[in-house]
From TrEMBL:
Signal peptide: none annotated. GTP binds at N58, K59, S60, D61, N86, S87, N130, V131, G132, K133, S134, S135, G174. Transmembrane segments: none annotated. Residues 11-178 form the CP-type G domain. Gene3D superfamilies: 1.10.1580.10, P-loop containing nucleotide triphosphate hydrolases. It comes from the Bacteria. It holds the Pfam family MMR_HSR1. Belongs to the TRAFAC class YlqF/YawG GTPase family. MTG1 subfamily. It comes from Clostridium putrefaciens. GO terms for biological process: translation. GO terms for molecular function: GTP binding; GTPase activity. This is Ribosome biogenesis GTPase A. Required for a late step of 50S ribosomal subunit assembly. Has GTPase activity. It is found in: Cytoplasm.
Amino acid sequence: MAINWFPGHMVRTRRQIKENLKLVDLVIEIRDARIVKSSSNPEVNEICENKPRIILLNKSDLSEGKVTKDWIKTLSSDKIKLLEVNSLTGDGIKNIKPAISELLKEKEDRMKSKGLKSIVWRAMVVGIPNVGKSSFINKMAKNNIARVGDKPGVTKNKQWIKTSLGVELMDTPGILWPKFEDEDVALNLAFTGSIKDEIMDVEELALRLIERLVITNPNNLKNRYKLDTLEGTSLEIMESIGKKRGAIIAGGGVDYNRIAIMLLDEFRGGKIGKISLETP
């Protein structure tokens, strides 16, 4: 499944991030807790250079708790702090300010020694499309400054947002790779909605998701759709789901497109259960 999707604004975003790094004290990178590796653009490490970074594992309510904590242990370092959050409910947001203070302690001490009492940090928010950046910024700002959409590519331009945590946020559009060489990465991004469904074959994508869940989370799949067995091909399983849900077209056949869209929506919404597609 070779996927090419690199809108022109992503080229500008990459250049914009590099140009604006000197304006910020740290970088807040947002990833999807279900696909911690796949939702990290490998260019971010290079682009952000040695800036202190907080990695927010967003949508942690949809991931398996133990797996998320394993990721935190694996990726944390002196310059990188990981936190699990839910941008929609605000869970975990309160931990961001202490994490910033810890990362920037030396800089804060120097500034205070020069007589500065009120310090406002500036942070650049980066992440791939549809990972929850706008929802996070809205929660931090406590109002809907950044537009929120359930499709990738909503945020187009840079903007500064003041928050109540003593930090100003610079929003940036989501940035993806020019091409996905790793099929698992491409599939993980497609499963979670970071690649536009309009450029995908949703029926093929749903079949691949079924294949994955049969291996990794069979009980979730069986319980959600009240399946007696997971034997057979992914197409046969999709047909069983269609019959259980009454997605039948004239002539008695299964409405594959309807079932594919439903399956992807229910996975993305956590209705199939808490599922982590990647482990450290």
